[in-house]
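Severity: low
Component: inverse-folding endpoint
Summary: output formatting inconsistent between runs
Steps to reproduce: submit the following structure tokens with default settings.
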């Protein structure tokens, strides 16, 4: 059983296959965190220590007992204002203006299956796959009630956390901060791993020791952002890819967020993840409730590689939905880097013909097909097909692309509006801006107020009119700026706008997915600016970065792989010199890198020589051969491309009989030192044959001694080796 309540000890114990999470209702009704780590059957309350610690106050109930302090004990859901001076998960502004909350246990329920959250994405699972624990807490002075949700998915070593807050009192209150998950550690030295970045350089890996102070990551941009991924890991100081205690916290939300790691005066560590509290001031009238998005937790003692595999499996099977969630995606050609805004219907059809010749399966028409949109200064919001530019109507264009044997996909950016658009001219108040102030422009566009249902409904209707013009098999949903000037003309409480905006986006996506269940939707935000588990609930893949340079992509995809599965990573082969960096990288290397993702092309095939086209044909054949191993296999990081001379990763089938090794040389020097790449995840005693050379190796040799990479002359060479277990 996944969830056990011990009535005598008043403990809740959550078991997954290889981890245990435990908490206890203590003598005053507080919910204390006891333990999260490898499987443990006993009661862990002996870990709590009680001392008289100066300047750490004592709850009134403790009477003269000065050894009991909220400031020192590990909390399950710490509140601001009750004597715990560390960063809080919950802060409430009461009707009387005070900011205090004192939550005590009232009751609990254990249920089969996994809870869901109205209007929000969340991990889903069948009754056989998951259990739910709901713990009801109350602040008796204000009658604020809180339900703490725990979802347990034993198979993948996943525990999810979320919170519902109910105003069961008479007065109005405001939520000032709501974090969905808190992890308190009473001892241990940890590193925190975060993934920072910028447009065209997302999810760079950073590993730093947790030191005294409070380290904060987050986004104030209304989206999860390029700047930090809403995801973090705590790992023991000496944890590696293959061993050591590691904890993941992955936020299932696409708006602003905050992640904190604090080391306190007693050397205890607290990690918090949840909604961004800046620009958040959420009113709850009597009887109203609020749901916080969920956080996925995972623990393993087997190092960072296994931790990522747990998350990959959970996101692929229990977050992504729809027809494509576990299917190999069509190999696509996107028109963006092929022609940017400069295309016609004819040129799109020609691109499709070239694509069909080399074996590509889908043509995607990117930005520029609607309204007045010959550059990025106008047209957003006017979702009517520019038939004059295309020289044909959309139905005809789709038919012609289909006639080449390809599927057809289209780009949209529903959340945005240009001032130079008919939509803005007729509804200026639909754009987010503050009356009396000039709004901040970004890419010369403004953000539509998706916290308003009428705005969402209108745009939804317009987009559906486009999608109904033919059989559209793919949609790329983009958002190309951060939100600023947060204000909604129909709202009294502006502290709700950013959260309600995200709910508006989710509502739109939910309806879209239901209406077009066979259509594959890819998320995008100037590349990977909204790359999060929340979006993956609606769009099973996300364009990973606007940077298609294969070398930079090795690092971007490396960082992304810590929290997200390969099937989520939109990745394409583009032209050289690369449009973002000017770098020259061979077609082979570009192919190897793009195969660590959904795989596709983003270039003008008409500009390619017949030799290059021949190579693309071979590349596509190779990809098809490996595609299910890449998507369904276990993913292993074999090097750190930020510090090692090569980027190396492998896909190993679940039965461990087949593996694909990928290596990209990042450095070249005179008199090169041999680079040995060590595999992971193979059966040590099995014999594996390299399909190309026919050479055989034991799994042990490949993992322990490694395999020497050739010392060829040339920059950024890539190698792919396909190992298959030899019979007998
Ligand atoms: C964003 C996307 C690109 C492309 C352009 C179109 O930057 O990330 O892939 O779609 O918008 O304007």
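Observed output (run 2 of 3):
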């Amino acid at each position: 059983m996944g969830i056990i309540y011990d009535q005598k000890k008043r403990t809740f114990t959550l078991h997954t296959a290889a981890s245990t999470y435990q908490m206890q209702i203590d003598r005053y009704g507080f919910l204390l965190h006891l333990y999260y780590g490898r499987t443990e059957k006993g009661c862990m309350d002996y870990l709590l220590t009680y001392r008289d610690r100066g300047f750490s106050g004592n709850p009134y109930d403790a009477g003269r007992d000065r050894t009991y302090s909220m400031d020192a004990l590990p909390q399950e859901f710490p509140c601001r204002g009750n004597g715990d001076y560390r960063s809080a998960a919950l802060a409430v502004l009461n009707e009387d203006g005070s900011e205090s909350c004192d939550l005590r246990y009232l009751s609990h329920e254990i249920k089969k299956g996994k809870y869901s959250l109205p209007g929000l994405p969340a991990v889903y699972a069948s009754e056989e796959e998951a259990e739910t624990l709901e713990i009801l807490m109350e602040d008796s002075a204000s009658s604020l009630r809180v339900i703490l949700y725990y979802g347990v998915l034993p198979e993948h070593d996943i525990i999810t956390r979320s919170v519902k807050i109910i105003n069961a009192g008479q007065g109005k209150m405001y939520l000032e901060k709501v974090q969905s998950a808190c992890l308190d550690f009473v001892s241990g030295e940890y590193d925190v791993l975060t993934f920072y970045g910028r447009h065209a350089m997302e999810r760079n890996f950073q590993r730093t020791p947790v030191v005294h102070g409070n380290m904060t990551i987050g986004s104030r941009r209304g989206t999860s952002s390029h700047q930090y991924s809403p995801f973090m890991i705590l790992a023991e100081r000496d944890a590696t890819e293959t061993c050591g205690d590691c904890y993941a916290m992955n936020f299932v939300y696409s708006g602003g967020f905050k992640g904190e790691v604090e080391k306190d005066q007693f050397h205890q560590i607290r990690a918090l993840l949840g909604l961004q509290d800046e620009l958040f001031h959420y009113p709850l009238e009597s009887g109203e409730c609020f749901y916080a998005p969920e956080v996925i937790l995972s623990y393993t003692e087997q190092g960072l590689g296994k931790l990522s595999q747990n998350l990959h499996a959970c996101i692929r099977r229990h977050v992504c939905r729809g027809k494509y969630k576990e299917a190999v995606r069509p190999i696509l050609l996107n028109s963006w880097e092929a022609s940017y805004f400069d295309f016609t219907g004819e040129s799109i059809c020609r691109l499709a013909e070239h694509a069909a010749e080399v074996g590509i399966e889908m043509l995607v028409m990117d930005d520029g097909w609607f309204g007045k949109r010959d550059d990025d200064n106008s047209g957003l919001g006017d979702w009517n097909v520019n038939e004059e530019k295309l020289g044909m109507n959309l139905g005809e264009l789709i038919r012609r692309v289909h006639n080449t044997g390809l599927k057809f996909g289209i780009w949209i950016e529903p959340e945005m509006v240009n001032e130079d658009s008919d939509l803005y001219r007729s509804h200026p108040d639909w754009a987010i801006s503050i009356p009396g102030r000039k709004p901040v422009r970004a890419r010369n566009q403004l953000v539509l107020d998706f916290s308003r249902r009428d705005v969402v409904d209108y745009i939804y209707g317009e987009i559906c009119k486009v999608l109904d013009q033919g059989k559209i098999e793919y949609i790329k949903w983009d958002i190309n700026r951060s939100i600023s000037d947060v204000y909604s003309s129909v709202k009294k409480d502006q502290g709700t706008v950013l959260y309600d905006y995200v709910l508006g986006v989710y509502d739109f996506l939910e309806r879209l997915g239901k209406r077009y269940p066979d259509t594959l939707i890819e998320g995008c935000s100037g590349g990977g600016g909204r790359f999060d588990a929340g979006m993956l609930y609606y769009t099973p893949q996300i364009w990973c970065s606007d940077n298609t340079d294969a070398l930079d992509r090795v690092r971007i995809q490396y960082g992304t792989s810590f929290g997200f599965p390969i099937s989520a990573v939109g990745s394409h082969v583009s032209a050289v010199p690369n449009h973002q960096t000017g770098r020259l990288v061979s077609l082979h290397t570009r192919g190897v890198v793009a195969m660590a993702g959904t795989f596709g092309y983003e270039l003008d095939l008409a500009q390619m020589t017949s030799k290059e086209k021949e190579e693309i044909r071979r590349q596509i054949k190779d990809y098809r051969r490996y595609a299910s191993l890449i998507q369904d296999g276990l993913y292993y990081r074999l090097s750190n491309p930020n510090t090692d001379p090569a980027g190396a990763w492998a896909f190993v089938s679940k039965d461990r009989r087949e593996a694909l090794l990928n290596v990209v040389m990042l450095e070249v020097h005179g008199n090169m030192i041999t680079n040995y790449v060590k595999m992971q995840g193979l059966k040590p005693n099995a014999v594996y044959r390299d399909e190309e050379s026919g050479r055989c190796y034991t799994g042990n040799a490949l993992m322990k001694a490694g395999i020497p990479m050739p010392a060829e002359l040339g920059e950024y060479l890539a190698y792919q080796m396909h190992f298959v277990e030899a019979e007998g």
